[in-house]
């Protein structure tokens, strides 16, 4: 199978080279092998030593679709090294 990249879109995109972070803001949506994520703001953080994804951070009205499951909360952090998803909010659904 061909490698599939991550596609993001929003009203605003900022890249901070020093922090190795691309931030999608205002109606952000990111889709890739890790899942489908919508939120007010989404940050893609690259590993310090490579162009590989280190983590994804979604903030504000987060909706995540991963492996045919939907989750909703206030904040989601995906850790690429161990493929771990941590969602917080009151409540997480």
Topology:
Layout: E1 7-9, E2 12-16, E3 21-32, E4 35-46, E5 53-66, E6 69-79, E7 84-88
Antiparallel strand pairs: 1-3, 2-3, 3-4, 4-5, 5-6, 6-7
How does this structure look, described?
The protein is mainly beta. Helix content is 0%, strand content 67%. The chain has strands spanning 7-9, 12-16, 21-32, 35-46, 53-66, 69-79, 84-88. Strands 1, 2, 3, 4, 5, 6 and 7 form a seven-stranded antiparallel beta sheet that branches. A hairpin with a 4-residue loop joins strand 2 and strand 3 (21-32). It is globular, with a radius of gyration of 13 Å. It starts with 6 loop residues before the first strand and ends in a 5-residue tail after the last strand.
Features:
mainly beta, 7 strands, 7-stranded antiparallel sheet, 67% strand
Overview in brief:
It is built from no helices and seven strands. By secondary structure, it is an all-beta fold.
Distance between the termini: 33 Å
* Spatial shape: globular
Figure out the total of helices: 0
Topology pattern, helix = H, strand = E: EEEEEEE
Query: What kind of sheet is the major sheet?
Result: 7 strands, antiparallel
Structural class: mainly beta
Query: Rg, please?
Result: 13 Å
Helix content: under 10%
Poorly predicted segments: none
Mean pLDDT: 90
Q: How big a fraction of the residues is strand?
A: over 45%
Tally the beta strands: 7
């Amino acid at each position: 199978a061909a490698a599939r990249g991550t596609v993001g879109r929003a009203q605003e995109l900022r890249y901070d080279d020093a922090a190795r972070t691309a931030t999608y803001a205002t109606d952000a949506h990111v889709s890739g092998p890790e899942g489908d994520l919508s939120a007010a703001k989404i940050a893609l953080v690259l590993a310090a030593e490579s162009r590989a994804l280190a983590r994804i951070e979604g903030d504000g009205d987060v909706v995540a679709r991963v492996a045919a499951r939907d989750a909703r909360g206030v904040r989601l952090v995906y850790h690429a090294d161990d493929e771990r998803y941590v969602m917080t909010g009151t409540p997480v659904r």
